[in-house]
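Hi again,

Forgot to attach this to my earlier email, sorry! This is the prediction with FE2/S2 (inorganic) cluster bound. I've pasted everything inline since the attachment limit keeps bouncing my files.
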Amino acid sequence: MSKNSTEEKQAAAAAEWEPSIVGFLCRWCSYAGADLAGSSRMEYPPNVNVIRVPCSGRIDPLFVLKAFQQGADGVLVSGCHPGDCHYAEGNYYARRRMTLLKRLLEFLGYHPHRLRLEWVSAAEAREFAEVVKDMVEQVKALGPAERYADFDGRPGAVAGLEPSIPVEVPVVGEGERK
Ligand code: FES
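C-alpha cells for the complex follow:
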C-alpha cells in the first residue's frame, strides 16, 4: 500500500470520527430537560450517552475518571441551577468537585474542555440541545482522548500524557503516620 493511500485513509478516518461523550444528568432537572428536547423533536448530536443520577451532588469524581478510562472523549455533568437543587446543596458540592477535578485532569494531560459542568432546568430543552451541540464541536476539535491506562494508583500513564508539573510525593514512614 502506498504512503499516500495510507495517509488518505487516516485523513478519511479522522474526518469520520465522532466523539463519545458520557453525560451524567440529574434526574430532576437536566435529565428532564434532555427528555423534553427529545419529545419536542429538537435536533442535537447523538454523541452523548446519558447516565441518570439522583442529583449532580451524587457524581463521584471517580465516575468521571472511570468514564475517561473506559474510552470517553468528553464528560458532561449537568444538574439543577444553583438554588434549585432538590437536595438543597448537591449542585454546590458538584461545582466544587468538578472544579478540582478539572485541575486533576489537566495535570493528567486532558484538555479542560473535555469535562463540562452545565446547569440545565427541566424546562430548558433548547439550552440542553445547545450545550450538547457546542460540547460535541469542542471535543471534535480536540480529537480523540488518550486513554489513561491506570487510574488505580499505580504508575502507568500512557505515552504523551506527561504531567505538566513535577510532583514530589513524600514518603511517610510507619512511625511518622498521624
Ligand atoms: Fe438536581 Fe441536585 S437535584 S442538582
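The two ends are 63 Å apart (CA to CA). Residues 26, 28-29, 55-57, 79-80, 85-87, 90-91 surround FE2/S2 (inorganic) cluster (CB under 6 Å).

That should be everything now.

G.
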